[in-house]
Amino acid sequence: MMRGIDHVGMTVPDMEEATTFFKQAFDAEVCYDVQRPEQEPMQGEEVEQQLGLPSGKTIIHMRLLQIAKGPTLELFQLGTPTDQEPARISDLGLHHFNLCR
Fold first, then answer.
1. Rounded to the nearest 10 degrees, how much is the dihedral formed by the CA atoms of 98, 17, 65, 45?
2. Cβ atoms 67, 30 nearer than 8 A
3. d(CA 8, CA 99)
4. What are phi and psi of 89, to 5 degrees?
5. Which residues contact 13 (CB under 8 A, 6 or more apart)?
6. Which pLDDT does position 101 carry in this prediction?
7. What is the rounded distance in angstroms from the CA atom of residue 28 to the CA atom of residue 21?
8. Distance between CA atoms of 71 and 97, rounded to whole angstroms?
9. Cβ distance 64 to 7 under 8 Å?
10. Where are the alpha helices (DSSP H) in 8-88?
11. Which pTM was predicted?
12. What CA–CA distance (Å, rounded) separates 53 from 6?
């Protein structure tokens, strides 16, 4: 039985800036860091397969934030350059989400 959305994942260019934004704008709280920047980056075939990453991409920081009682936000910061500009409304895929108070 489906209960609802557990989390929404997004890649951010700077983890601390993104965290500050969500804290100030929505009173988000950090749940925990899955991957910390001082650890070896998440990389390799297994990670690429699990997360759908292109070959050679690395994740240097992964953090979960909670906004009120809603789904968590799973933020990813890559240690390798991103492949493209952020999605626009004319692109396929998720280009925004809305939070309400």
1. 100
2. no
3. 12
4. -60, -25
5. 77, 82
6. 63
7. 9
8. 12
9. yes
10. 15-26, 45-51
11. 0.85
12. 21
Model pLDDT for residues 5-24, shown as the tens digit of each residue: 888 899 999 999 999 999 99
CA–CA dist 48, 17 (Å, integer)? 25
Neighbours of 48 (CB within 10 A): 16
Q: Residue 69 is which amino acid?
A: K
Residue with tokens 């390798």: 80
Helix, coil or strand: residue 89:
coil
pLDDT (tens digit per residue) in 69-98: 888 999 999 998 877 777 777 877 776 677
Q: What is the CA radius of gyration of the chain?
A: 14
Residue 18 CA to its chain's centroid (Å): 10
Q: How many CA atoms lie within 13 A of 69 on its CB side?
A: 0
Cα separation, 49 vs 69, whole angstroms: 31
User: Is residue 86 a contact partner of residue 72, using CB atoms and an 8 Å limit?
Assistant: no
Asked whether 41 and 58 are in contact (CB, 8 A), the reply is yes
